[in-house]
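=== RUN LOG ===
request id: a7f3
mode: sequence -> structure
chains: 1
length: 201
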Amino acid sequence: MRSHWMRSFVVAGALALPVSGVAATTAYAAKLAGIVMPDFRTVDGVNLVLNGIGLRTYSILRINIYVAGLYLTHPDHDAQSILASRSMKILRIHFVHAVSGAQVRRAWRKGLIRNCRQPCTLPASPLHRFLDAVRPVRAGENFTFVFDRWGADVYEGRRLLGRIANPRFSRLMLAVFIGHHTAQPTLKQELLGVGEKLSAR
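=== RESULT ===
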């Protein structure tokens, strides 16, 4: 997620993740499909707890695509409450399977459009710039979205890609995973902490 979208929506930077940024506590952790998610993370002094961990699969063969973890300041099992909250949130995604650029763009486009329900508006130009910047993903790569009331910081591994200075757009990005219209409802339930994957903790 670089280039045109970053120049349009983000104060860009390729910076190492600072100590004051996102820190993980690994004394307690959840493990799923070989991926470990710490139970607690800290963002600029704000403590967040792992609300849920889930696995995204694809096709009737249930091919594992990625493991996602949602962190909140307080556990919350209501998607609309989480999306409406101005509190800090983290969505961490670790890919266990390579995904082509076309597949990633198709998933983002479908999710953003379907979750932008009236009175929500999603202008075509920003959407196209965002999709144009999406690239293929390799197995083993991970992305972290740190949401606050003003937008979101986007990391690839420990590298800061930039800041999305658009709170409505960043809210829609989270809605792709826990909104009314998600590609995999079971993943939504797991991130909300009410799915079967809680047993993995």
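=== NOTES ===
Residues 1-20 have pLDDT under 50 and may be disordered.
The chain has six helices and nine strands.
=== END ===
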